[in-house]
Structure formats: structure tokens, C-alpha cells
Write a structure and sequence with these properties.
Elements lengths: L1 E5 L3 E6 L2 E4 L15 H7 L1 H12 L4 E3 L5 E2 L8 E4 L4 H12 L38 E4 L4 E2 L4 E4 L8 E3 L1 E7 L8 H4 L3 E8 L2 E2 L5 H4 L6 E9 L10 E6 L2 E7 L7 H9 L9 E3 L7 E2 L5 E6 L3 E9 L1
Parallel strand pairs: 6-17, 8-14, 9-20
Antiparallel strand pairs: 1-2, 1-5, 1-14, 2-3, 3-4, 6-7, 10-13, 10-18, 11-12, 11-17, 12-14, 15-16, 15-19, 19-20
Bound molecules: manganese (II) ion.
Length: 310
């Protein structure tokens, strides 16, 4: 099931080019921030899904082109984000930094080595699946979220700094998840969506460089877990002004979604409605005022955001 939020925080089920309004299936629906019915719906979806399916038969349907899609999870507690999780992207970042760009000298590690020292506490191995590299998982501010038809706003930057696109495959957590093992981690996933991890390149705190207002466009909707049989078998494409810039497959990730959830949840609980994003593939690059950036997650859908100056 593809669950969209649209217009005045209506709940919709996407069917082809139409969205069916099933808001009436939600007790306690509200149009006021912080929309507490959304994480409650996610946490109780097994009970609510039959009610939604019942409403579907008679609900009004609107063309998707005529509604304003909202961010499908507007107020998560956490956005946990994997860094440098594709070898080709880690390599391109090393190349950029070795060339002296962005004032950076600390090239990110390329995967495949020993467990990182930053992974400070031990977890049991899975038989036949030894620990590899432990990448960083950082937090983005949830108030950087915008919807799939909103606009990225570029902040004023000192010379030499650039804002880059990163097109990523992300999940929404379905139930509280703390210290979950990778072999169980996908059981805690509610569904999947696309996420742009918009980034100021350069030195300084990663969370700040990636948390400017509008730096986390998400969408176009949530595809529930049953729609994606294998999160490591998903195609991710990002286009700028119609030209493909990132052309990737989640099988190329250094650490899969299960490992990212395991690692993040080993430190802090992930809650229903929280977002975990799996990192950018290669092909990152600068975005400019006037650009149109499109992210497509094959099997879910696509969305396009404009770029303007703040
Ligand atoms: Mn990223």
C-alpha cells in the first residue's frame, strides 16, 4: 500500500495516477502540528489497515496532479543517516578532498576494512556474516524536512562552499526499536520512501551542514514494507534538470539497511515514524538556484523539487 499525505494533511492511498482519500479511517485525525495521529497510525497499522481497505471501496479519488503532496512523515523524532555507504561515493569524496576542495583534508574511509574504532560497543556476529566496516550514522534535524513538491532554499555561504544533492533510499520505522540485531532489523520497518540528503560540503559538523531548513526533501509517499521484497534490491536515480546524476542500486551499499538500523538503534531508540536513510551513491554534485532535482526510487515513485536562494 502506498500512503500519501496531501492537501490539508489528508491521508491517501495512491493507485496509479490517483489518490484515494481515506482520512475517515483515522480516529483523531488533526491538521495541527505535530500531527500525533501519524506515528500512532504507523504504530497501530496492523489494526488500522483493514479499516483503510474498507474505506477504499467508496472513497473519493483525485488525480495526483491536482493535489499538493505533503512530507509523508512530517515530524519524526529522529532522522538517522548513514554516511559514505557506497564505495564509489566514498572514493569520489576522497578524490574531491585530495584535490583540496571544500577545505577538507580528512578523506572519509573507504569500506571493507576492520570495524571502525568509532563503533565503541560490541555486538554479536551473525554466523557466516562477519562484521565489516562500521560506517558512521549521524542525525539530521527533523525540522529540515520538506515535502515532495516543496522548494530547497540555498543559504548564503562563504566562497568555496557548495550545496550538493545526495539521492537516497530510506525507510520509516514501524515500532520502537532499541538494540535490535541486524537479523531482526527489517521486521521493524514500516515502509520505504525517497530522501534527498542536501549537504553543504566542507569542514565542520556534519549534522549542521545537512540540517538547514529544507535540506531533507522526502517522498513522494510511503510504500509499505510488503511492496519492497528486498531493500538491497532497489534502483535509485537522481536527476538535475532532466540529466541523470546518480544512477545506483542498493546492492552496492557497504552496509545494508539492516546493519544501519542495528548500528543506530544500538545507541538510541528509534520510534514509529522515525526515518533511517542509507547514504548517498556516487554522482553527488552542486545544485544551483533555478535547478529542478528529481529523485526516483524504482518501485515506489518519484518527486521533483525546485531550488531557490534563501
Ligand atoms: Mn547522505
Amino acid at each position: 500500500m502506498r500512503l500519501a499525505l496531501f492537501d490539508d494533511w489528508r491521508l491517501g492511498v495512491v493507485e496509479g495516477d490517483l489518490v484515494a482519500d481515506v482520512t475517515d479511517a483515522i480516529e483523531g485525525h488533526s491538521t495541527e502540528w505535530p500531527y500525533p495521529w501519524i506515528p500512532r497510525m504507523i504504530a497501530n497499522f496492523d489494526r488500522i489497515r483493514p479499516r483503510i481497505e474498507e474505506r477504499l471501496a467508496s472513497s473519493r479519488r483525485l488525480p495526483l496532479a491536482e493535489v499538493k503532496l505533503r512530507p509523508p512523515v512530517p515530524t519524526p523524532f529522529n532522522i538517522a543517516a548513514a554516511a559514505s555507504n557506497y564505495k564509489a561515493h566514498a572514493a569520489e569524496m576522497r578524490t574531491m578532498m585530495d584535490a583540496g576542495r571544500f577545505g577538507g583534508t580528512a578523506a572519509p574511509p573507504v569500506g571493507g576494512g576492520a570495524p571502525s574504532e568509532s563503533y565503541e560497543s560490541a555486538l554479536p556476529d551473525v554466523e557466516g556474516r562477519p562484521h565489516g566496516r562500521r560506517g558512521e550514522v549521524f542525525l539530521k534535524s527533523p525540522t529540515s524536512i520538506i515535502g515532495p513538491s516543496d522548494t530547497i532554499l540555498l543559504p548564503e555561504l562563504v566562497p568555496g562552499k557548495e550545496v550538493h544533492h545526495e539521492g537516497e533510499f530510506a525507510c520509516v520505522i514501524g515500532r520502537e526499536c532499541y538494540r535490535v540485531h541486524r537479523k531482526d532489523a527489517i521486521d521493524y520497518v514500516f515502509g520505504y520512501l525517497g530522501l534527498m540528503d542536501i549537504t553543504v560540503r566542507g569542514e565542520g559538523d556534519r549534522s549542521r551542514r545537512k540540517s538547514y531548513k529544507s535540506f531533507t526533501p522526502i517522498g513522494p509517499w510511503i510504500a509499505t514494507r510488503d511492496e519492497i521484497p528486498d531493500p538491497q534490491d532497489v534502483k535509485v536515480n537522481l536527476y538535475v534538470n532532466g540529466q541523470i546524476r546518480q544512477d545506483a542500486h542498493t546492492s552496492d551499499q557497504i552496509e545494508g539497511l539492516a546493519e544501519v538500523i542495528e548500528y543506530a538503534s544500538h545507541c538510541y531508540p528509534l520510534m514509529p515514524g522515525d526515518i533511517v536513510t542509507t547514504g548517498s551513491p556516487a554522482g553527488v554534485g552542486q545544485i544551483h538556484e533555478g535547478d529542478r532535482v528529481k529523485l526516483e526510487i524504482v518501485g515506489i515513485g518519484d518527486f521533483t523539487v525546485d531550488v531557490e536562494s534563501l
